[in-house]
């Protein structure tokens, strides 16, 4: 198959050599398919950009021999008007670039257009209709529901209603709709859209992990750290340290562990963010030597770090949005580490608890005590469950599912 993947923000994947569509492309190419990823020439909040000296696009080959086509847009900061203009310019120019390639005899067999924002889906549908190419729309973030739930726009306002119409338009006109959250069909039912979007064309492929890369990094990218190598009960968190990540809750938990005499518990926080300095100061003022902020580390060291923990920690915000499921990127690396997971809140279609890989409790201290008091046999069972579940979410397996959906879309 000749496959085009439209993902505005895949620029970061080119630089990182990883991510959802890089993973798909890697294994599609190994299967003999031809893949091109169309993305913006400006990275998303990372400052890593591709200069386009002539025209509105340029091509480069990334890791794993994946061809990236960079579409000219504009730089932006934050989520204001400059970002909206960046979205519009991608929508406008990716259509032009696609048209030119088709005129040059490079018509694909299928287009996979992926959100976050809906204009990418609209562009994919436009090219599909104009040149008789089946277009699959992939929904990684349900707009406008996500924007409403997190207070970015008002429910039933002009923008909300416009985005709802745009959302329905994309679902109606896509050959298939792939949700990254398992409850996509239920969402269509709740919206009463079955008449326009038959459930047989709604599919589900969650995010995942490239186990080949993960296992290689785990064995070869060793992160030397005295605390990480200790025999203590190590609770590890990796990721951002901002207001939304709620790591302030760990200060209280660390205090409770001290009070309960659980002296061998150690919290290790790997990451950076706006809240780090404040939380570190509070921990120091309270003389808590059982919570240590390690700072940011290269992503290639994360597999080794996670595999040296006793249990890995995920914080999520509580929201009705998550009743349809989640696609937590870090959760799949956590699973691949073979160590149990603690969650501070539940979500719908929870693949972590369903396979007995995680402990959910709003009271993190109670979750800590539960894992702390597990028998060796029960703990080992949770570890084995994590490994088995990670294999279901490996990009090798997920790509086979994607390929089957694509073939059905082309044949039908």
Automatic annotation (TrEMBL):
InterPro entries registered for this protein in UniProt: Glyco_trans_1 (IPR001296), Glyco_trans_4-like_N (IPR028098), Glycosyltransferase_grp1 (IPR050194)
All copies of domain Glycosyl transferase family, residue ranges: 225-391
Protein name: Glycosyltransferase family 4 protein
Domain of life: Bacteria
Domain Glycosyltransferase subfamily 4-like N-terminal: from-to ranges: 24-212
Pfam families xref list: Glyco_transf_4, Glycos_transf_1
């Amino acid at each position: 198959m000749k496959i085009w993947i439209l993902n505005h923000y895949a620029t970061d994947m080119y630089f990182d050599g990883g991510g959802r569509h890089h993973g798909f492309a890697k294994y599609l190419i190994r299967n003999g398919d031809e893949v091109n990823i169309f993305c913006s020439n400006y990275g998303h909040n990372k400052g890593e950009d591709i200069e386009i000296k002539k025209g509105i696009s340029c091509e480069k080959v990334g890791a794993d021999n994946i061809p990236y086509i960079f579409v000219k847009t504009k730089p932006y900061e934050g989520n204001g008007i400059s970002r909206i203009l960046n979205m519009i310019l991608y929508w406008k120019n990716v259509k032009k670039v696609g048209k030119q390639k088709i005129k040059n005899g490079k018509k694909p067999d299928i287009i996979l257009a992926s959100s976050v924002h809906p204009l990418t889906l609209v562009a994919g549908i436009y090219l599909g209709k104009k040149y008789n190419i089946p277009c699959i729309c992939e929904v990684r973030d349900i707009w406008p529901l996500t924007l409403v739930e997190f207070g970015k726009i008002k429910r039933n306002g002009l923008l909300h209603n416009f985005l709802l119409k745009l959302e329905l338009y994309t679902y109606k006109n896509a050959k298939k709709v792939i949700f990254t959250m398992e409850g996509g069909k239920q969402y269509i039912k709740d919206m009463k859209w079955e008449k326009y979007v038959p459930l047989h064309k709604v599919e589900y492929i969650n995010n995942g992990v490239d186990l080949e890369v993960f296992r290689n990094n785990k064995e070869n990218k060793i992160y030397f750290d005295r605390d990480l190598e200790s025999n203590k009960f190590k609770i590890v968190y990796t990721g951002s340290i901002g207001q939304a990540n709620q790591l302030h809750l760990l200060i209280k938990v660390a205090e409770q562990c001290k009070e309960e005499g659980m002296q061998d518990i150690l919290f290790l926080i790997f990451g950076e963010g706006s809240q780090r300095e404040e939380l570190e100061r509070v921990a120091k003022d309270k003389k808590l030597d059982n919570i240590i902020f390690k700072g940011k580390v290269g992503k290639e060291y994360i597999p080794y770090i996670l595999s040296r923990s006793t249990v890995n920690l995920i914080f999520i915000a509580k929201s009705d949005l998550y009743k349809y499921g989640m696609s937590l990127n870090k959760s799949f690396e956590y699973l691949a580490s073979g160590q149990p997971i603690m969650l501070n809140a539940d979500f719908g279609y929870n693949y972590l608890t369903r396979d007995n890989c995680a402990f959910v409790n709003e009271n993190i201290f109670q979750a800590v005590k539960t894992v702390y008091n597990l028998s060796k046999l029960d703990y080992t069972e949770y570890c084995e469950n994590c490994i088995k579940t990670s294999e279901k979410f490996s990009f090798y397996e997920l790509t086979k599912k994607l390929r089957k959906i694509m073939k059905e879309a082309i044949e039908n």
